[in-house]
Design goal:
Thrombin, subunit H; 6-stranded antiparallel β-barrel; 8-stranded antiparallel sheet; 266 residues
Length: 266
Amino acid sequence: MSDLPNVQGATIDAIIDHASRATLPFQRAHREEQHATAFWFNELVETTDEGEAIRQYLVTAGGPTRFEIAEFTLRPDLCDPAMSAEKLMMVDFAAGWTHLEDLGVAVMPTAGLHAHGARKGWSWTTDEITDGMAAKEEDIAVLGAEPVAAYLLGHEVGAETGARDLVVVVGAVTRTESGGVRWVGDVPQGCVGAPVFIGAQLGGDSFKLVCAGVVLAGDGHHPIATFDRVRTALRALAPAAVSVPETDGPNPQEPELKRRWWQRRG
């Protein structure tokens, strides 16, 4: 096991390189409660000669989304040009989410966030968890009762300052007796809803970075909603169920630019 630090370090480096701008901390506005982490996900709809059609969402645990006014904490590297404000307020917050009830996961189409930025003269410069990075059924099937090293990418709540710094939390994932997957280790306050990664071995010293799923709230044992199930649930949704109202966005009282909730990328 002497090479464990090198494997761990390489996996953390890969997470930072590919996903450090994928996360967005939020909480109930004006109150020190309901702290959580959301992240950007690009669902691949189809690939054609014209490019890839994707639907883009914020993804998080469903529990922390059930309040009306939210406060996102922005990092300068998520916006171009960088915003002077560190907070982004969103009213009608609970109504913006579609709940995948069986999974404990909530998703929000990102059209309103993009439209808000465009109206204010800036654009998002995020990383996204791509469909290729998100775990497939075969990635989850190899998980068993033996713990597998895993890494949570979230925004903890600073004990003294309340700052929402980005952290990589090292732990493990394991299969439960009921067939689910759970996180083994601490989940700092503010990190519920965060993505969990594993390094899937490809042979030799090679591995691929896989986002196993979303960490949920738990009493000592935090379940993970695995991405194979999240992907299946998203594809089962009718487009009308997750379409974006014309007034959706961080400030619904102000008119927003219309933006499709799906995009085609060449």
